[in-house]
Structure formats: C-alpha cells, structure tokens
Design brief:
By secondary structure, this protein is of the alpha+beta class. The protein contains 16 helices and 21 strands. Strands 7-15-16-17-20 form a five-stranded antiparallel β-sheet.
Length: 579
C-alpha cells in the first residue's frame, strides 16, 4: 500500500525504473481495467518467470503482480495505490480485490492497526524506558513481519491461504546480487529466530517446522549423495529442499543445521505439549531420520564416537574434528529421538542409545587443566573466532557443566570474538545472567546495540551499518536475551523455569502472554520482586509456581501472585516437580 497526501493544487510524478533483474524475466506486461465492483481505477499487470530454477526438473516459477497505475500528475487530496502478488493471475487478483474491498469500506489502515493492536495487547514485552521500548517493539515487528499472518487477527484472511517457505536471515529476499542471503533458510531460523518467538507465538514456530517437513526429501537426498543414512539438512534451502548454498565449503562442512532443525521441534513440543506434530504432521520422520544420519556420520576412535571434518558455527575454522557445538547438538538430537520414540510407543534404535550415552558416547572436547571447552580438537585458546559457538553449550543446548567451566567458556571466547554477527553477545549476556554476574551481563547485553541502525532501529549483521540489513538473526538473539536472559526462561517437558531480573536502565518490565502448554502467563518484574498471573488456558487444570526450597503457590486464573526474585518452576499440579 502506498499513500500520498498532496497539499497543493497538483504535483508531478516521475517514474524511475531500476536495472532489469537477472533473476526474473518479464513474460507479459499490460494495462487493463479489472471488471469488478471493487475496482480501484486502471491497473498494470505483469507476469515474470524465474530465470534459474533450483533444479533442472523444477518448473519455472511464475509470479504475477497487479498494481495501481501511478498517474503523471496528482491533484490535491489523498491518493492510495495498491499492489498484490500471486503465483497465478487469479491469486494476485483475489488479493488485490480484497485490498480494494478494505479501501472501499475505509478499513484499509484500520484493519492493519487493529491487527497489530491485537498483537501488542495480547502478547508483548513492555519496558518503562521509552527509548528501549521502541527497540523492543521494532524488533518484534520486524521478526513477526517475516512470518505468515497467523499471529494477527485479520478479517477474511483465512480464505486466502498461501505457502510459507521459512524465514531467512535477511528476511524476504532483497538486496543486490549475492547480498542479504537471497531469502534462503539457514540454521538461523531454527536456533536463533524461532526461540525468539517460541514463548510468545508458538503457532508461528509450527509453520516453520512444517516447512522443514516439506523439505525432508531434499535432506534425504543430501544424506544419500554424501554416503549417509537418514536425512542431512542442507546449509541453505529455498523452495525445493535441495542445498542452494553458493559456497561449496559451507554446503559441504556446515552440518550442525541438521541437529538445529530437531532442536526447534523439541522446544516446540516442550512449549506446547503438542506431541501430535510428530505423528500428525510428519515431524517424527525428521526426528528419526536425522538420528539415523548422526549414527551413520560418527566414527569410533577407540574411546568415543567422533565427528570429523566439519565447519563449526565459528566459520573462521572448517574441516575441523569434533566441533564442540556440532557434537553436543548431535547428541541432543539423538536423545530427543529416544525420548520421542518412548512417547509414541516406538522402539528407539539401539545405535541412538549407544552413540548418545554420556560415557563413551559422542566426544565433547574438554580441557581439564584450563577448565574450559576447546572449540574443536586442536583449538588453541585465544585464537580469533567469528561468532557464538562454545557459549551455546550452556544455553540453548543445556549441556551440564560446573559454574567455573561455564564462566571460563564465556570469558575466554568473548575475549577473542571478532566484531562479527550481532547475535553473539546475546548469548554471552544470557550466560552471565545464569551465573548471577549481573554487571558483566549488562555490559555484554549492551554490546548488541552497536548493530542497531537509527531511525527505525533496524538490526544490521555487523556493527556500524555493515553487512546484511534487517538481520533477523540478530533480532532473534536480542529477543532471546530478553526472554531467556532477563526473564530467565528455560523450557522443559514438565515445567517452565524462570529466574527473572529487571532489564538494564529499566524499573519495570512486563511480559504479556508468555505461552506454556497452551496456557498464558503474565510477568511484571521490578528490582524488588515480580508478579505472575495465569491469564488464560484450561479452567480444569491446576497450576502452581514452586521456589527452590519446594514452597508452592497456586496460580489461580486471573489472580496475581507476588514473589521475590529468584529461581522458580511453573507446572501443572499433575507435573509438580521440586527444584
């Protein structure tokens, strides 16, 4: 929608066409009057065809656009212009006429505003620092805008379904040739962006998992091509599920994405309690076949199972052996396959159990003398790294370790982290909050803002407006630092754990609509304590919050409980667990 307000008698408009696209070939272009009661003047219609399909067998994808024509001159007053897109002419026309219908009813803007008002009132993170609040709102807005409309309440849209192809680090495809990730889907979706919306909009996470289900044939093909069993997810995927990564070394060695896909499924199941996504929507096939991949990928070295020749999340090093993160994520993949098999009444493959055991299972490099995790076999402490890697063991993977090891992993790697992608420092901050190091956590938390661009508070990939623009991976990291850092949320199958702290430069923080097991909870946090209120859910289920000493407070719907800051677990009475 483009709106122009003319405050004088008339203005002239000039049309400036950009360079012809190398990706899209225009196959038809015409002006016409749409025969409809809902028309909004003359429109231009063009059809384009993708010049390079993902595979030689893929049909050439077509896209249609119906757009209002901009006249050469505009008179005084308010002018509205619309554009609609679709895979067919009829689909584009359907969306165009829907927009015209809103326009004729004078509800085009109000529908948009009401939909976002619904989001902010039902699910939100509010702070009493107005400047910081703008950053939180803009971050949620940019990330949510990359997902389907299921988080919004927009009239009639249920009758206008469309296909979802995941979330790319650069949001919708944009930028010049080779820029902003081309709309491809990476591990960023599963490990960085989805956790940022998981506790607020789990229905959006489900759509992303269904995308991974749809792309499973491509993952099977990649595993088979590389001589492995099961499913090996491509480093970059698009419409067909084959690997569309333009860099050969990344496509070959970046293998942790396979485990990250299952991590997102695991967290979704824990947050929602919806194990049926495995049986009814095909996600079990992902869990099983990725576990099969890992047991075919490992080798036995006489002491442990090892995974050699990979690229760590720290992309400065590749063809390394036993990446800490890759191995730990693969083990978690296998453990969830075993758990899911038990839930579904299936038999876990004995190889899954053997490879994932704590002793003599997958090797997790550890230096007992220096009390830290080397990033991979042969890593020298202090060597420059690109981005978060070992720090991800504590959170999000939840690898058990002593506090001194967790602290050393954060301190040692933060010292040698390059000025890299914006999501890294969210993880250092979260780790220090776990350890109760609030001042250090605040310093690390604020490093993220070097990647924030005024005036619209868009996150850049690198500091000072360098790299991918509207870098949603950084948005996901920032939102995780709010939800899993300052709220202290950790999601388990039987309970939701929180350890709240007030955010820097704020006196009060409100989390509205935090979702767990299809229930909603509100939290208001100050320096003196916090309040929790169970707002919506099943009236026949009894919920409670339990402190570290086992003291329990019932959470009656719409009644507020006030507590001191500290570690707590929220659970259904039937799942009651003492910390």
């Amino acid at each position: 929608v483009t709106e122009i307000e003319v405050s004088r008698d008339s203005v002239s408009l000039e049309s400036h066409q950009g360079k012809p696209s190398s990706d899209l070939k225009i196959i038809s272009h015409s002006n016409e009057i749409i025969s409809s009661d809902e028309q909004l003047g003359e429109v231009t219609v063009f059809a384009g065809e993708i010049t390079s399909p993902e595979t030689k067998d893929s049909p050439a994808l077509k896209v249609y656009c119906i757009s209002s024509i901009f006249p050469k001159e505009l008179s005084r007053g308010h002018h509205t212009f619309l554009s609609a897109f679709g895979y067919t002419y009829n689909e584009a026309l359907k969306f165009y006429n829907l927009a015209v219908q809103y326009y004729n009813n004078k509800s085009l803007l109000s529908t948009h505003q009401k939909s976002w008002d619904f989001v902010w009132k039902s699910v939100n993170i509010d702070v009493d620092n107005s400047d910081f609040a703008k950053t939180v709102k803009s971050s949620l807005f940019f990330l949510l805008s990359a997902f389907p409309h299921f988080a919004l309440q927009i009239p009639d849209l249920e009758n206008y379904p469309f296909v979802f192809f995941g979330v790319s680090p650069g949001s919708l495809g944009n930028g010049g040739d080779g820029q902003d990730y081309w709309g491809h889907v990476f591990w960023d979706q599963d490990l960085w962006m989805l956790p940022g919306v998981m506790l607020l909009f789990p229905q959006l996470v489900r759509q992303s998992i269904l995308y991974r289900v749809a792309m499973l044939p491509g993952a099977r093909k990649k595993a088979k091509t590389n001589g492995y069993m099961g499913a090996m997810y491509p480093w970059e995927s698009g419409r067909t599920g084959i690997d569309v990564c333009p860099g050969a070394i990344y496509a070959k060695y970046q293998q942790h994405i396979t485990a990250c896909v299952v991590y997102a499924i695991r967290q979704y199941v824990y947050v929602t309690g919806s194990w049926d996504i495995l049986t009814e929507d095909g996600a079990w096939d992902i869990v099983k076949e990725t576990a099969d991949y890992w047991v075919s990928r490992v080798e036995w070295d006489g002491n442990n199972f090892v995974i050699n020749h990979v690229m760590d999340p720290d992309e400065y090093h590749y063809k390394v052996d036993n990446s800490c993160f890759t191995n730990a994520a693969a083990r978690l993949n296998l453990l969830f396959a075993i758990e899911a098999a038990g839930k579904l009444g299936k038999s876990a493959d004995p190889r899954w159990i053997s490879v994932s055991q704590e002793k003599q299972g997958i090797k997790i490099p550890f230096d007992e003398k220096l009390r830290y995790h080397p990033e991979f076999d042969g890593y020298t402490q202090g060597t420059l790294i690109k981005q978060a890697s070992v720090v991800l063991l504590g959170y999000p993977l939840g690898v058990p370790m002593d506090d001194d090891v967790r602290r050393n992993d954060i301190i040692e790697y933060e010292k040698c982290t390059d000025k890299g992608p914006g999501m890294t420092y969210s993880m250092y901050s979260i780790g220090m909050l776990e350890l109760g190091q609030l001042e250090t956590a605040e310093q690390l938390f604020k490093v993220q803002f070097k990647n924030l661009r005024p005036p619209f508070r868009i996150w850049n990939e690198y500091p000072y407006a360098v790299g991918c623009t509207n870098f949603l991976t950084a948005v996901g990291g920032f939102l995780q630092s709010l939800l899993y850092g300052y709220l202290g949320a950790r999601v388990f199958e039987q309970f939701l754990q929180i350890n709240p702290h007030v955010m820097p430069d704020c006196s009060n923080v409100t989390y509205t609509g935090v979702s767990y097991k299809r229930e909603r909870f509100n939290f208001i946090i100050s320096k003196d304590g916090f309040q929790v209120c169970h707002t919506t859910g099943n009236a026949f289920q009894l919920w409670s919050i339990v402190d570290k000493d086992g003291k329990k407070w019932p959470l009656v719907t719409n009644e507020t409980v006030s507590l001191g800051l500290g570690l707590y677990k929220i659970s259904n009475f039937n799942d009651y667990v003492i910390i």
